[in-house]
Amino acid sequence: AQSVTQLDSQVPVFEEAPVELRCNYSSSVSVYLFWYVQYPNQGLQLLLKYLSGSTLVKGINGFEAEFNKSQTSFHLRKPSVHISDTAEYFCAVLIGIQGAQKLVFGQGTRLTINP
Amino acid sequence: DGGITQSPKYLFRKEGQNVTLSCEQNLNHDAMYWYRQDPGQGLRLIYYSQIVNDFQKGDIAEGYSVSREKKESFPLTVTSAQKNPTAFYLCASSVTGSTDTQYFGPGTRLTVL
Predict the structure, then answer these.
(1) Which of A31, A47, A81, A84 could pair with A35 as two cysteines, CB 3.0-4.6 Å apart?
(2) Residue B89 vs residues A28, A110, B25: alpha-carbon distances, Å
């Protein structure tokens, strides 16, 4: 069964420091990967996605992620974080079921930016 | 503006009552989804629908029911059979296709008193 593991439940970082949120997946078929961000008491917003092509994917708000097939990873990075990046981040893999698509989510990583 | 709306934002229910959560989209998407979010567990799929008058169970459908009578609407009923209904419920939609992005609504927080 396909699954997603986010290795850190919480990541505290100082403002303007770099950050990496780790995500590993297990999948035996074609891999489509997503990162979503959730601000408190809100829905999810797409940060970026990998479908094919370049393994380095750039998203909104200065985030990027690198697909690494050999390590089955899709880590999210930002070179310099802001207070406004405080949120929960979810990695997800898309799988096909009976002609439809299904997102399987990791447990989430809570990013806290300290001044 | 196109988007997904969910109502109400907060909902309180007494044990033994059924409640219905609303989800409406004006994105002209064919597929719609309901997820449940619990702290530390990510999101889990409850039901999904690819087309009007058709829907399928997700991973945790027990105690829930849905209908899809209109393309833009996908209401979720939390029945009294759901043992632990207190959670944050998120609705999503996408253009039917293998890699289409799912867009999420703002969510409904359900609390059972």
Answers:
(1) A47
(2) 30, 19, 16
